Amino acid sequence: MSWSTLTAASKARVLGLLLSCALVISSLGVLSVKGLNFGLDFTGGYITDISTESVTSIADLTAKLSPEVVDKLIISKAGDHHFVLRQAPDLNTTANWQAELSQQGIDFKVLSTSFLGSQVGDELFEQGCLALFAALIAIMVYLAVRFEWRLAVGSVVALLHDLILVLGLFSLLGLEFNLTVLASLLAIIGYSLNDSIIVGDRVRELLRIQSGSQRIDTHVVINDAIGSTLTRTLITSGTTLATIACIWLLAGAALTGFAIALFVGIVVGTFSSICIAATLPQLLGLSSDNYTQTLDDKTQAYIDMP
Questions:
Q1: E-assigned strands of the chain?
Q2: Could you tell me the domains of the chain?
Q3: CA-to-CA distance for 257 and 74, rounded, in angstroms?
Q4: How far, in Å, CA of 265 to CA of 249, rounded?
Q5: 46-92 pLDDT, tens per residue?
Q6: Which helix (H) or strand (E) holds 223?
Q7: Where does the Protein export membrane protein SecD/SecF C-terminal domain start and stop, copy by copy (predicted)?
Q8: Is the whole model's pTM more than 0.85, yes or no?
């Protein structure tokens, strides 16, 4: 297979694969330099709900506090005049922001305060990572049984690509990584796998059809498989994205990270199912010969019997 013999669609898929490689390398670089901004679910600390009639936005609230205190707080808006303050387990910081608001003449009411110990956060992080790892192992076993190894490798690489890009985006933007975001990664695994399996199943069916005397180039078969499943993929992704967008815009700060991760994961998952899950097997030498079954002499004799 040479570049000159590829169709425009095949060239676009290969270029998309190269773009994905560059994005993965960039994401790994960002993760190694900046790391993830772990939320209080994992680090432990205080979560305080307050309400105030004199402050309407996060910018107004942070303007009333000193930079030293603001740097130690994660402030989110939970509703009109309702804010959630997250902070490390430091009682001095709690006293500081309350004192500064009082000095500024801000009348506020503490609705609730809760504390999450760091030990609990470590256990949650460990259990979440174990759940993620177990899901990946189960999926790899399933793909190994269901697909020829080239299609299975393409699906696994596409899955890892989606997770790395989402984590890289959270690291780049400094978004809080908490339990809801970890749950979204599990959802992304399932969604990305579904897309890859739909395309992979169609590729396998078309290759089996071409395993007789008539042979068609593998890249043409893959293009046909993508074309026949693209409408269903776009409709499914579009309706899901519309739902996630509503959660993002209307569900409040508590689910913002979850919605962002899932939205990005679905977009890159649809992209990777075309540019990675379908293209990588082609570069690894997938052909209809991989689905040609060799019969033993006894079975062949039964078939040749009159």
A1: 37-38, 45-52, 73-79, 82-87, 108-116, 176-177
A2: 8-37+120-291 (1.20.1640.10), 45-116 (3.30.70.100)
A3: 14
A4: 17
A5: 788 888 887 878 888 888 887 777 777 777 777 777 888 877 766 55
A6: helix 218-250
A7: 101-281
A8: no
